[in-house]
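thought: fold this chain, then report.
action: predict
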Amino acid sequence: MTPVSPDELWRAPVDYGAVGATQADDLLAYPPRGFRALEKRIRVGHGPERWEYAWMRVLSWGIQRGAGLEVVPVSAPAEATAETYVPVSFDEAGNPVQPAAIGSDGEVLYTPEGDALVRPGDTGFLKPWFWPRPMPVRVVYVVDEPARRGAAFGTLPGHPLSGEELFLVERGEDDSVWFTVRIFSRPANGYWLAVLPALRLVQAFLVRRYLHELTGPLPGA
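observation:
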């Protein structure tokens, strides 16, 4: 499929149907038909400072930049982010969990370093240093709970893979901080199917970099 130009990227729909499927804890056992699922989870530290650092990195394109990707956000009109899917989470008693960190009124929030926090509908290009062409993605939902925060990125036309990646930071009752990468994907078309082994190697390489990106020293430590 012909890549979408930056000026028109915000208009393009994601190129898969199971939007939001990375929310499912049983994704590995029941991925969308035709897709391969992958999940990795590690402990990245302990305490409130690590928690704040980790979720802000995940919600500001920081996890991608830290893994070595060039990130080019693409501006979109307010209506492009106002009408997007926002999941509702529930506690063990079945009560909806109220948002904790990200404003629901369309306000753009920022990290202490001045990076904007992503919102559902935000779009951008990702480019590894070794890859010839930028890969377009869109934030399809944001997880915003007191002890769980993260964002899922869906692929757009022009990406070699079709599917979704969730980056989720969780804070345990013991103040431990955990990071999960959950993915389902398949080649975007027949051309990329022919080089699928190479695509999977690149994907595995990036996942390893994502996992270790949050384990380093805290800023100012």
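thought: worth noting. The chain has five helices and seven strands.
final: tokens above.
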